Each structure stands twice: as structure tokens, then as C-alpha cells.
Amino acid sequence: MKIVYESKTGHTKKYAEMLAEKLKIDCIALQDYKQEQEDIIFLGWVFADQIKGYSKIKHRANVICTIAVGINPYSKENDEKLIQTNLVNTPFFYLPGGIDYTKLKGISKILLKLVIDQRIKENKPEDKEVIPIMKMGGSLVKEENLIPIMEYLTKK
Question: What string of pLDDT tens digits covers the 156 residues of the chain?
Fold first, then answer.
């Protein structure tokens, strides 16, 4: 078993590396992954309700669980939307990631800025923790966020 990940600004990669270390298994970027039909844990970053890389890997490997990393606060509705939009057919987990504006360019940066400006205007209570990160960049990546995933994987 391996961890395969797709990361844009490093938050998903950080989670993948932490999880690999805890599980004592290899971790590899999707772009470097050459195997076929082996058991993997997949982590992908979220952009516009797409789990980046998932559509590329789900037919190439036996994905035993899918982990999405994004800036939205956790909600069951968000999970359901990501599962449905991406046709996820594995156990699913969502982790809070972050934003690194220095690594975003072009249309990704422009679209993110538009979405963030709208979210800031809406001023929803559930966004309170992420608003500073949306404005200035930053990270919510913490090892403790992996606890539910570790509990699931160690029971499997």
C-alpha cells in the first residue's frame, strides 16, 4: 500500500507525508506514480468542488480511501457535495488545508480571490477560523486532524 497525492501549494503534500510516516508506508506525488492496480490512499486538494487528481487515479489504482484537503470549514454538506461531484466511491475524509498565495498563479489565483471576496462579504459564523487565512494565506494543517483517518485505517 502507498499514499498517492496531488498538491498545489504543499498542504496536501504535508498531510500525505505525515500520514505516510505514521503508517510507515511510501508516499508519492500523482505525477510520479507509475504503478497500476495497487492499494493506495489518495489525497487531493480541492478547487471549485473538484478533488484534484482523483479522476486520474480512481481507475488506475485500488483507492481504499479518499482524502480531500481544502479551505472550507468541515460540514457534512460539503462532504456530500464533494463525494457526489467527484463520484467518490470509497470511504471519504475531509481535512482543513490552507492557502499559499505565493504558489498560486493565473486563473487559479483570480478565481480564488473572487470566491474569497464573496465568502468574506457573507460573513458566516462557520467561516470565522478560515477568514484570516483566506485574506492573508496560512495553514490549518495539524497532525491531530489525521486522528479519524488513522482510526479508520488501523481498524481496516
Answer: 999 999 999 999 999 999 999 999 999 999 999 988 899 999 999 988 999 999 999 999 999 999 999 998 889 999 999 999 999 999 999 999 999 988 888 888 888 888 888 888 888 888 888 888 888 889 999 999 999 999 999 886
List, in order of start, the domains of the chain with CATH numbers: 2-155 (3.40.50)
Strands 50-51 and 62-70: unpaired
What would the grid cell of residue 136 be? Answer: 492573508
End-to-end CA distance of the chain: 13
- Joined grid coordinates for residue 144: 491531530
Query: Taking Cα atoms as reference points, which of 143, 114, 148 lies closest to residue 18?
Result: 143
- Residue 6 to residue 43: CA distance in whole angstroms: 6
d(CA 50, CA 79): 12
Instruction: Give residue for cell 497532525.
Output: 143
Q: DSSP 3-state assignment of 6?
A: strand
Strand 39-47 to strand 62-70: parallel, antiparallel, or no bridges (unpaired)? parallel
**By three-state DSSP, how is residue 5 classified?**
strand
